[in-house]
Please model this.
Amino acid sequence: MTTNETRGPDHVVINSDPAAFEHWPEGLHAEMLGDLNNGCVGSVLVSETDTMRIWHLRIAPGKRCRFHRHVNRYFWTALVAGKARGYFSSGEIRDVEHYQGETKHFDYGSGDHMVHSVENIGDTELIFTTVEFIDGANTPLDVPDSVRLA
Model:
């Protein structure tokens, strides 16, 4: 697989063509390149075992989480309804409406990953729980102690 290929909208490798990001807000592409190995898939890591990490993600209206990389199987659940805009490392921008209880599952094989950021484009806080399985085909990314619940 080359750096310009995708495997569906949620299996995205990093697009190496700068023209793919010309429609993004200024500075966002540079931020993504700086966060390619960010393993913080939520705001706070609330629980961790040898096989999984459980995250909470809260995004206020008009705010956006940092870019982060998913490398193994995970799922998320929306705890409230809201509107989001996703920026993907393919250059794609996708707007979605989440409903309370919505749950999506993803799986990444050896060498696969997905890098993205989520922006809250609605008028209510977005709140998600993400369960990341760290015993998959890929080595889990490091996360700083500062995101772990004390």
Observations:
- The chain has one helix and nine strands.
